[in-house]
Amino acid sequence: MTLEVKDIRLIRRLLTDKGLIYEYSGYVKSESKPNHYYHTLVAIHATPYPSYKLLRYSCECEAFAYRGWICKHIKTLYNKAINEIKRRFSEDYKHELELKQIIERMKEPKQFSLEL
User: Fold this and answer.
1) What is the reported pTM?
2) Is 41 exposed, middle or buried (0-12, 13-18, 19+ CB in 10 A)?
3) Is residue 38 part of a domain?
4) For 11-58, what is each residue's pLDDT tens digit?
């Protein structure tokens, strides 16, 4: 059974030397408490190979708060985020590399000549 996720949002996207880190936030529905959603966060490192690694995570549920386990809410948001990352990674990576090149060119010292 897949849990419902609402208000899933990409919070941040960071370029690394080997790929991109995506941070997602969402509200994942509780199975035990009717009409209750847990705020859940995941940070995933994605590479062009493709590979995905869960870097950071948190959830408001009891399983995570008391035991520190990767709960079903984290797993659910992770799976939703991976589907989104698979769809957008190539374009995002290309865009971030282009921005990095622009920033590096802006850092280069400028040569000026003064003619009197």
Assistant:
1) 0.81
2) middle
3) yes
4) 999 988 888 999 999 999 999 888 999 999 999 999 888 899 999 999
